[in-house]
Structures are given as structure tokens and as C-alpha cells.
Specification:
Rossmann fold, 8-stranded mixed sheet, 4 domains, alpha/beta, about 35% helix
Length: about 575
């Protein structure tokens, strides 16, 4: 249904007795605009997460200028505004601590200002889900324009994926198989442009899922950051948001339960980051959508892994884009999608991708020739994770997906760092490394500490993977047989807190089980002596986080931001 009155007109009102309408118009004109901008033009906010402390989003000023061209050409008034920018590589202790803060910043900046529609500029890991969460809560017409992946690194005739190859090469350096000079060469060429990671890490996953949900123009997510087509589609997005305001097409009409199920299906097909689970749960919570952790596993069992992209494959995001990107993947899995789900184009998913082509069937496989028969991420349960845990099975070692071994337990991340390279660390390749106190409360903030390094002594013996378990997250660029997001977390008394060195632990991925093989009576005895760690914050945002953050299986949003009923602006 078309909008009959622009929201911004409430700010520019020309009632003879309205001093503030007159004053607000004067303040806008102080920016050099003529009075014509108030004559029925929709105001389009450009929500920009640009920052020099966020290399992934460094080019978004240029992207914003392209959006403005589109807005002006369609008859709108573009007004750019900043929000907090979450630079994954720089912020301590973790950007996840601040995702909810950014989501609040986005929501309230939209809500408080004379904006009829908003274009969301994102890229780095948490900026995309934060903006989706914020616009879901504000619920005015919105469209997402990601910044795109950086150019592939290249060293000595070898393509390098930021994050994934960086970790592998750094392990070679730890083992003495790369020199300081060689590592310096890699450092200078592994990330050679603005843009987010060029593997299927969290940034590439979440921008891809923004498209799968229907919040970007078709084909927008995967265009490389320096490619001129990135600016062209930004301009088109600027034109489209003006049309969306006229149509009153809102996020609540697009980000439905069916759209989120489509996103999960695409996530499984692309071998996406485990972090997608927690972000999609948070987005669902903002929309009053009942999305259960087990639905991810149900979809994983029926949607195979098709995208041959690191860390679950061989290629990089540039290759993925040239092969057809998300539209080609979605066309391939159309039988598993809700094809009538509405998108920001005004058309359905089926209409958008029905004619999409794949140009390289080694990069994007067909349903009849998948890389893996099941999706990338699975959900585990058992007495060690009664509320669930996640495992990226496509980046794990097949030989370890059914494994039983003795635990070696690190009580904290710092303890792990201090011990992991001890020559006398009493572990073998069959040990199960366990790390506690790395969840939303324990760390705090739920950091990407789950990629526990292979102990130095074993690395020198050629061991490349072990079963590792924690209540942390891990970077989507990471790989290995790593169980994450164990819930409830250890710091609030979850069963992970009861694990001790020497306890047998069994992982059975096929059965989706994670078991601490200790008698119930002994676990009850240990539980009776559990003492909750002291909170890490006693003031400010940190204290707010600890008081209100939910567990991983609920998306780690703040309890007071989850919708109680459908949102109406």
C-alpha cells in the first residue's frame, strides 16, 4: 500500500504557528540546500559505517556518493549520517560485545531523525547484522548496500585468502617453516585493498545472507569492493529506495520467517560462517519471529554444500562473484527455497534469480554434484551442550567427526595462550582441547577465541587438526574440527564448567551428539561446588551487556530489544 504522507514532513511542517518546522528548514538550508528540497521530496538517510579504524569499510564514503547520485536522480533528498563502526581486526575484546550497541545506534538514529527511508552501508562482520537488527526494529523502508570483498592476496604465484590462508601460513611460521622475511612479504600482500575478507568468512556470509533474505538488490552482495560495478549497484540502490518509500515497502514485509529460512538454506549451500547462526537468531528476535536453533540443523540435513570457497573449499570470493555469486546459488537450490518471498526489488526471490546462470561449475556445484551432501553448519546437543552447540562440518576433518578422547581443559583463554606451546603439555593428537569462560558473560562479549591453536609440540609432529570445544565463537575464516557456542556457557554454570582434564568426551557429528562421558552423580557433585566468576564490568555499557545479553542459542541480543509483538513505527 502506497504511503500517503512522508514521515519527514512532520519535521518540515509549514503550519503558520509551527516555529520548529521553520527552524528545522532553516538549519537544513544552512547546509547549502535550496527551499525546493522541502517540496515533497522523501528524505533518504544513508547510514554509513565508514571508519579509518575499520579497513573493511574504508571505501564506504565513495559508495555513499554513488548512493546519493541515485537518490537525487529519483527525486529524493539524501542525507548521510554516521554510526559506530565495528572493525573486526582492531576492536578489543571483541566486536561482538558492541554489535548490539551498533544495532541500537542504527535504530535510534533512524527513529529520531526526519528520515523516510534508509540505505544501510555495511561490510565488516558485525556491521551487517547490526544494521539489519536496527532497521528491523525501526521498520521504515530500508535497503542494504554492502561494501564487497577485498581483492585476493597473491604471494609467489599463490592466491591467498585473508584469514584462512593467513592462519595456515602463520602456523608454518610457528613451526619454523617460514622465515621472518617471508612472513613480512605475506603481511604486505595478503590484504591488498579495502573491503571485507575474501573468503567465506562472517563478513562474506552475512552480506550474502542479506541478499538471500531479500534486503539487497539482486547480485549486490559479492561484487568486489574495488570493482566499478559496486558503485553502479549502489546508485541503483539509491534510486530504488526512493521507490520503496513511495510503495511503503518495509523490512517487516521482507524479513519474514520464510525469508530467514531462505537465508539459512543459502548459508548451508555456501558453507557460511558459524556466526550466521547467532546473527540470524538475533534478527528473528527483533521481528517477533519464532526461529529455533534446531531449524538450522533441519535445513542443513536437506540442503547440500555447493560453494567451493575457502575455508570449506578451494576458491575465493572474487571467483565466486565471477561464477555467478548468490543468484546462481539460489537458482540452484530453488527447490529448497520459499520462491514467493518478497524482496527490496518489489519482486519475489523466484522472479529475481529464476534466470541466473552459473559460469563455473567447479566454484558453484550443482545439486547433483555437491561438495558435501549436507549443509555447512550442524547443531549438536547432549549433556555437554543441552541448549545446543555448532560445528562447521564442511571445514572439519572427516576422520574426527566421530571421535572420543580425553579432555585437556583450559579454564580461560589466557591460560590457553600461556600453555599451548609448552613442550611438556600432556596432550596427544587424540586429546580433546576444551576451553571455558569464553561466552557472552565469561569473556565477556563472546569473542572469536574458539580456534584454539594446535599445541606447538604436536604441530611440529605434523598434526594439523584436533577436536576443540569451547563456549566461544570463531572467525568465519577459521577451519578445523571445532565445536563452538556451547550453551549454556560455562560462566553461568553450564555443563561445560564441570568438565575436567582427563574426562572422556565423545563427538558424533552424524548423530548430532556431544557427550561428556561422566556419571550423572559425579556431574551433580561437581555442580554443587560451582562458583560463578565475578562479573568483568561494574559500570557503563559493559554492565548493561552483562545484565541483559541472552545466550548463544537466543542470538546474544539484549533481552529488552527482542520484540514482544510485531513492530509498528
Amino acid at each position: 500500500m502506497a504511503r500517503t504522507k512522508l514521515r519527514s514532513q512532520e519535521w518540515w511542517g509549514r503550519d503558520r504557528g509551527d516555529y520548529y518546522g521553520y527552524a528545522r528548514r532553516a538549519w537544513v538550508r544552512s547546509e547549502g540546500f535550496s527551499a525546493d528540497v522541502f517540496d515533497g521530496r522523501p528524505v533518504i538517510g544513508i547510514c554509513n559505517s565508514w571508519s579509518e579504524l575499520n579497513n573493511c569499510n574504508l571505501h564506504l564514503r565513495t559508495v555513499a556518493e554513488a548512493v546519493k547520485r541515485g537518490v537525487w536522480s529519483a527525486g529524493g533528498l539524501p542525507l548521510e549520517f554516521p554510526t559506530i563502526s565495528l572493525g573486526e581486526m582492531f576492536m578489543r575484546p571483541t566486536t561482538m560485545l558492541y554489535r548490539n550497541l551498533m544495532a541500537m545506534d542504527v535504530e535510534e538514529s533512524i527513529r529520531a531523525n526526519p528520515i523516510d527511508g534508509v540505505v544501510l552501508l555495511c561490510g565488516c562482520d558485525k556491521t551487517t547484522p547490526a544494521q539489519l537488527m536496527g532497521c528491523a526494529s525501526a521498520d521504515i523502508p530500508a535497503i542494504v548496500v554492502p561494501g564487497g570483498p577485498m581483492l585476493a592476496g597473491r604471494w609467489r604465484n599463490r592466491n591467498l585468502g585473508s584469514g584462512t590462508d593467513g592462519r595456515k601460513l602463520f602456523d608454518l611460521f610457528r613451526a619454523g617453516r617460514l622465515t621472518e622475511e617471508e612472513l613480512d612479504e605475506i603481511e604486505g600482500c595478503i590484504a591488498r585493498s579495502a573491503g571485507h575478507c575474501t573468503v567465506m568468512g562472517t563478513a562474506s556470509t552475512m552480506t550474502s545472507l542479506a541478499e538471500a533474505i531479500g534486503m539487497t538488490l539482486t547480485g549486490c552482495a559479492n561484487i568486489p569492493a574495488p570493482d566499478s560495478r559496486r558503485l553502479a549497484i549502489a546508485e541503483k540502490s539509491g534510486r530504488r529506495i526512493v521507490e520503496m518509500v513511495a510503495e511503503d515497502l518495509r523490512p517487516s514485509q521482507i524479513m519474514t520467517k520464510q525469508a530467514l529460512e531462505n537465508a539459512i538454506a543459502v548459508d548451508m549451500a555456501i558453507g557460511g560462517s558459524t556466526n550466521a547462526v547467532v546473527h540470524l537468531l538475533a534478527i528473528a528476535g527483533r521481528l517477533c519471529i519464532d526461529l529455533d536453533l534446531d531449524e538450522f540443523d533441519t535445513i542443513s540435513r536437506r540442503v547440500p554444500h555447493l560453494a567451493n570457497i575457502k575455508p570449506s573449499g578451494e576458491y575465493l570470493m572474487e571467483d565466486f562473484f565471477y561464477a555467478g555469486g548468490i543468484p546462481a546459488v539460489m537458482r540452484e537450490i530453488l527447490p529448497h527455497l520459499h520462491c514467493d518471498a518478497l524482496t527490496v526489488t518489489g519482486k519475489t526471490i523466484g522472479e529475481n534469480v529464476g534466470a541466473a546462470e552459473c559460469h563455473n561449475h567447479d566454484v558453484i556445484r550443482g545439486l547433483s554434484n555437491p561438495l558435501h551432501a549436507e549443509g555447512g553448519t550442524i547443531i549438536l546437543r547432549g549433556n555437554l551442550a543441552p541448549d545446543g552447540a555448532v560445528l562447521k562440518q564442511t571445514a572439519a576433518s572427516p576422520s574426527l567427526l566421530k571421535h572420543r578422547g580425553p579432555a585437556y581443559v583450559f579454564e580461560t583463554y589466557d591460560e590457553m595462550l600461556a600453555q599451548i606451546d609448552r613442550e611438556d603439555l600432556p596432550v596427544t593428537k587424540d586429546s580433546v582441547l576444551v576451553m571455558k569462560n569464553c561466552g557472552p558473560h565469561g569473556a565477556p562479549g563472546f569473542p572469536e577465541w574458539g580456534h584454539i591453536p594446535i599445541p606447538g609440540r604436536l604441530l611440529n609432529q605434523g598434526v594439523q587438526d584436533m577436536v576443540r570445544i569451547s563456549d566461544a565463537r570463531m572467525s568465519g575464516t577459521s577451519f578445523g574440527t571445532i565445536v563452538l557456542h556451547v550453551a549454556p556457557e560455562s560462566a553461568v554454570g553450564g555443563p561445560l564448567a564441570l568438565a575436567k582434564t582427563g574426562d572422556p568426551i565423545e563427538l558424533d557429528a552424524a548423530s548430532r551428539r556431544l557427550t561428556l562421558c561422566v556419571e550423572d552423580a559425579e556431574l551433580r557433585r561437581r555442580e554443587s561446588s560451582f562458583v560463578r566468576p565475578e562479573p568483568k564490568f561494574d559500570r557503563g555499557y559493559g554492565q548493561l551487556f552483562l545484565k541483559h545479553v541472552t545466550q548463544a542459542n537466543l542470538g546474544c541480543d539484549f533481552d529488552f530489544l527482542r520484540a514482544k509483538s510485531p513492530q509498528a513505527f
